[in-house]
Amino acid sequence: MVEIFNWLFGQYADYPTVFIALELIAVIFGVASVLLASRTNILVFPIGLVSTAIFVYLLWKWQLFGDMFINAYYTVMSLYGWINWTQSKKNTAIKKQQDYINPTGQQQNESLANINAQNAIQVEHLNKKDVPILALLASATIAFVALVYYFRPVINNNFSLMARY
Fold first, then answer.
1. Is 6 domain-assigned?
2. pTM over 0.70
3. Which of 37, 114, 116, 129 is 20 to 30 A (C-alpha) from 18?
4. For the chain, how many structural domains are there in total?
5. Of 147, 86, 91, 146, nearest to 124 (Cα)?
6. For residue 99, how many other CB atoms are within 10 A of its CB?
7. Which three-class secondary structure string do you get for 38-57?
8. Rounded to an integer, what distance in angstroms lies between the CA atom of residue 69 and that of residue 82?
9. Burial 104-126 (b: 16+ CB within 10 A, else e)
10. What confidence category does residue 160 fall into, taking pLDDT thresholds of 50, 70 and 90?
11. What range defines the domain where residue 52 resides?
């Protein structure tokens, strides 16, 4: 039993207690965020922000930069989603979208009757003003990935420009 315990938690032997507590808090908030997302609750955004922000800090300290940037991206997207959700609440058309995402029993029966018409993904609220933002986001993501791969030797050399021999 001790061997299993050491195998599971041995990686934390040299970690400061603060990092262990922060990681535990981030995991709890992450699980809570997933549960809130399944219920389409707006609290998914602040809870998710806490989780991803803590992971960004921890991953920076552990020098896991790829994972850190992914979590930073999730943090930014959570902020965007929160802002978008609060602005969309002013519209009455958002209720239709919420019912489509989380249907009631009667709506499920109606959707089963129209299963052939529902085989495609529907985007109900895409405005012309959203297209440049989405294009910029996609371009920035591709550029960032290319930049990371370009500077991979420098990153693997602990950000030192001096060659190791």
1. yes
2. no
3. 37
4. 2
5. 91
6. 11
7. HCCCCCHHHHHHHHHHHHHH
8. 20
9. eeeeeeeeeeeeeeeeeeeeeee
10. confident
11. 2-90
